[in-house]
Design a protein that fits this description.
CATH superfamily of the largest domain: Spore Coat Polysaccharide Biosynthesis Protein SpsA, Chain A
Strand order of the largest sheet: 1-6-3-7-5-4
Distance between the termini: 40 Å
InterPro entries: GalU_uridylyltTrfase_bac/arc, NTP_transferase_dom, Nucleotide-diphossugar_trans
Helix content: 25-40%
Enzyme class: transferase
CATH topology of the largest domain: Spore Coat Polysaccharide Biosynthesis Protein SpsA, Chain A
Order of helices and strands: HHHHEEHEEEEHHEEHH
Number of strands: 8
Shape: globular
Family: Belongs to the UDPGP type 2 family.
Catalytic activity: alpha-D-glucose 1-phosphate + UTP + H(+) = UDP-alpha-D-glucose + diphosphate
Largest sheet: 6 strands, mixed
Protein name: UTP--glucose-1-phosphate uridylyltransferase
CATH architecture of the largest domain: Alpha-Beta Complex
Length: 215
């Protein structure tokens, strides 16, 4: 990417890419079979070094002034526990998410008693959904190795989370976009173009929407 940007004279983008790559060593591992999120997380164990770590799922994008993962890290450091980002969702959507069972939601964060993976509406303990941002203590790997695969053969991260001695939930601030399907991905791209690009991309999207609405 750096070579192509430099060759095409896009030096402003080149500097942005170089700035990102200087922040960390980046490792890429492909999950060979779809054996669940839990198995995918296990691939990272050798890179963690026995330290707490952040997990960000790519099918959720959260736009906020303070990055959601920074909010979770703040709570994790305060309590020394694993922390999961939660969002109150419509009850009719609970069957599409992992759902948290909590005693109450008083305060900025709160203990979670249990997690249920994609429950039916009548079985859901709450409408607080896990939204793809976590900070885990390294003990999560022990639980991932210990759990049995689900009936479909997948290793569910929520099953391992249920074994943690302590885990907290935190409702993070920001606007969330689920980008796991094409319509949601398109909406997220339009929203980001309108919010953050005041040049050609912004004008193209704005003008296109205006023309379509006028028609």
């Amino acid at each position: 990417m750096e070579h192509e940007l430099e060759k095409s004279g896009k030096y402003d983008r080149l500097e942005r890419v170089r700035g990102i790559t200087e922040l960390a060593d980046i490792h890429y591992i492909r999950q060979q079979d779809r054996n669940g999120l839990g198995e995918a997380v296990m691939y990272a164990e050798d890179h963690i070094g026995g330290e707490p770590f952040a997990l960000l799922l790519g099918d959720n994008f959260i736009q906020s002034e303070t990055p959601p993962i920074a909010q979770l890290i703040e709570t994790a450091e305060e309590y020394g526990e694993s922390v999961v980002a939660l969002e109150e969702i419509p009850w009719e959507n609970v069957s599409s998410y992992g759902i948290a069972d909590v005693e109450d939601t008083a305060g900025e964060s709160y203990p979670v008693r249990d997690f249920v993976e994609k429950p039916a509406r009548e079985d859901a303990p709450s409408n607080l959904a896990i939204v793809g941002r976590y900070v885990f203590t390294p003990e999560i790997f022990d639980h991932l190795r210990a759990i049995e695969p689900a009936p479909d053969g997948e290793i569910e991260l929520t099953d391992a989370m249920r074994r943690l001695d302590r885990v907290r939930g935190r409702a993070v601030d920001g606007d969330r976009f689920h980008i796991g399907n094409v319509p949601d991905w398109l909406e997220a791209n339009i929203q980001m173009a309108l919010r953050h690009d005041d040049g050609e991309l912004f004008e193209t999207v704005r003008q296109t929407l205006r023309e379509e609405l006028e028609d």
